[in-house]
Specification:
Blueprint (H helix, E strand, L loop, with lengths): L10 E3 L7 H12 L4 E8 L8 H8 L5 E9 L3 H11 L6 E5 L3 H12 L9 H15 L4 E4 L10 H11 L7 E6 L2 E2 L2 E2 L2 H18 L3 H7 L9 E4 L8 E2 L4 H12 L5 E7 L17 H19 L6 H28 L6 H24 L6 E2 L2 H7 L3 H15 L3
Parallel strand pairs: 1-11, 2-3, 2-5, 3-4, 6-11
Antiparallel strand pairs: 5-9, 6-9, 7-8, 10-12
Helix pairs in contact: 1-6, 5-14, 7-8, 7-10, 7-11, 9-10, 10-12, 11-12
Length: 407
């Protein structure tokens, strides 16, 4: 059970009473008449064979308040797209699948590339961006939630709590970030958030001093959660990172575009577990190693836009400061695990911290070597300005794909 303490500059909406799902869904159904809601599900085709998706579909199928479900399907050929249509066909709500590898959406991607507006790399960021474009094109929703398709502990109360802050017409929130505990198999998970992001933010505060942006990031209990919701109007001017910096990048965009009074974080479940990425210490282009580099670069880029100056010497100082702070956090997490009867391998924790410290330097070197790097996908406002009928094209392509597949 969470406490009611408000820390930082972002409002925290706790789970104080374990309110009944039936009661909350009834209220959301009444909200839906004023503020129709959509759910975006970015999915790899491989997740259709995973341990989580069947349960997610079964749970989402019971949700009474959704006006639209948009599924972004990556890495699927025609046969696999048809299979996905069959799998997601169990959803009784209005739903559409974006076949991102299909010829129609590939043609649109090529058109965007001609204008220098296409996402530069494959991945979740690109998938989410196209899904958001379809949400704008279909105009069936005024609030939209997003969560992953690999959550093995999923039940639909997660969605209800996630979308509630932006769906309630009496609330003024434009954006809600989900948070939760990361515990599975009697051990603490969430290494990148615990051992990289929070210690790095604290280290940057020591090196750069108190900055509004760092205080803002430090207010989030789980900044790397892949679950968030927003009013649909937010999508127009949102620039989405195409790499592993997606979650931090979205938080940075919300900080740039809105007052913190319009943002919140919400406790969406007691426990959460999903597909785990390997540490990949031997390969900086894979797993948590690549993720840590992309996240560091996302934070460094944001600070640079606010006038902070970086150099090789500054990054060496940040690395040294981070390393000390992170090692202290290992002790804190070890004690927290012990009092809760959980296990924590200090050796593996320190190995992760050593890798993350190296990757802070790698990220810093990459940042200095590539000052023109722009990993953000353009906002939909910019794309519409360049290609006024782009949303109509996306809508027609998706409808044609789904019509031919019998959806």
């Amino acid at each position: 059970m969470a406490d009611f303490y408000q820390n930082g500059v972002v409002t925290t909406l706790h789970n104080l009473t374990d309110r009944s799902l039936e009661e909350m869904e009834k209220e959301l159904l009444s909200f839906s008449r004023v503020r129709p809601m959509a759910l975006v599900l970015p999915s790899l085709y491989s997740e259709l064979q995973g341990p989580a998706l069947e349960n997610i579909i079964n749970e989402v199928a019971k949700v009474p308040y959704l006006n639209e479900i948009v599924i972004g399907l990556d890495q699927a050929d025609e046969r696999q797209f048809k299979h996905a249509r069959h799998v997601f066909g169990h959803l009784p709500q209005h739903h559409r699948i974006l076949w991102n590898d299909g010829p129609r959406l590939r043609k649109i991607d090529a058109l965007l590339e001609e204008q220098g507006l296409a996402p530069k790399e494959m991945g979740k960021g690109r998938n989410v961006w196209y899904c958001y474009g379809y949400v704008l094109a279909s105009a069936r929703a005024k609030a939209v939630a997003l969560h992953d398709c690999d959550i093995v502990t999923y039940d639909r109360s997660l969605l209800a709590r996630l979308i509630y802050p932006v769906a309630n017409p009496a609330f003024s929130y434009q954006f809600a970030k989900g948070y939760y505990a990361r515990i599975a198999d009697s051990k603490l998970n969430g290494r990148v958030s615990r051992l990289l992001v929070t210690p790095l933010i604290r280290a940057l505060k020591k090196v750069h001093g108190q900055l509004d942006y760092l205080d803002y990031l430090d207010s989030f209990r789980y900044p790397l959660s892949g679950e968030f919701s927003m009013r649909v109007d937010v999508l127009n001017d949102l620039r989405i990172p195409s790499d592993w910096g997606l979650e931090v990048g979205v938080l940075s965009e919300m900080h740039r575009n809105y007052s913190t009074r319009r943002l919140c974080q919400v406790d969406i479940c007691d426990n959460y577990d999903h597909k785990h990425q390997p540490l990949s210490a031997e390969d900086a282009a894979a797993g948590l190693s690549k993720m840590s580099i992309d996240i560091c670069k996302a934070i460094f880029r944001k600070l640079a836009t606010q006038g902070e100056v970086f150099s090789n010497e500054k990054f060496r100082t940040i690395k040294a400061t981070y390393f000390r702070v992170a090692l202290d956090f290992i002790e804190t997490y070890y004690n927290d695990a012990r009092i809760n009867g959980l296990s924590l391998d200090r050796h593996k924790e320190e190995q992760a911290v050593e890798l993350f410290a190296e990757n802070i330097m790698r990220a810093g070197e990459s940042f200095l070597d590539n000052p023109m790097e722009t990993p953000f996908i353009p906002s939909w406002n910019r794309v519409i300005s360049a290609i006024p009928d782009i949303l109509d094209r996306i809508y027609e392509a998706v409808e044609a794909d789904n019509r031919e597949a019998g959806v």
